[in-house]
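Lecture notes, part 5. Sequence design as translation. It can be helpful to think of inverse folding as translation between two languages: the language of shapes and the language of residues. The source text, in structure tokens, appears below.
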């Protein structure tokens, strides 16, 4: 996909499906609704994607197609460990996620979710 100059921008477990129900089925990547044609050296600025999988560069509005690698890293972590790499901390009053904390980082390291 990247060799063909496309960036998916929403890689997540839910966007991989089995082609058939057979045990040796191929897997397919789906949902190219946020994908964009991207040439080397170009910079993208739109903040989009699924928050749990989105790269920090996307939140900073300065990224290229390597943002897909962050999503692959999150997916790989989940497949190998059985849990997600981040812990969501909920705002009890607002009823929404206000912080995401990395399981493998020190507990004091938090990223504010906008």
């Amino acid at each position: 996909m990247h060799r063909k100059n496309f960036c998916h921008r929403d890689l997540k477990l839910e966007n991989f499906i089995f082609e058939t129900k057979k045990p040796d089925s191929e897997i397919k990547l789906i949902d190219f609704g946020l994908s964009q044609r991207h040439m080397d050296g170009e910079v993208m600025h739109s903040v989009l994607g699924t928050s749990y999988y989105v790269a920090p560069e996307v939140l900073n509005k300065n990224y290229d197609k390597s943002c897909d690698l962050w999503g692959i890293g999150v997916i790989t972590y989940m497949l190998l460990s059985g849990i997600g790499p981040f812990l969501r901390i909920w705002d009890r009053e607002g009823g929404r996620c206000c912080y995401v904390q990395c399981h493998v980082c020190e507990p004091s390291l938090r990223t504010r979710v906008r």
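The translated text above is only one of many valid answers, since several sequences can fold into similar shapes. The longest helix spans residues 67-81.
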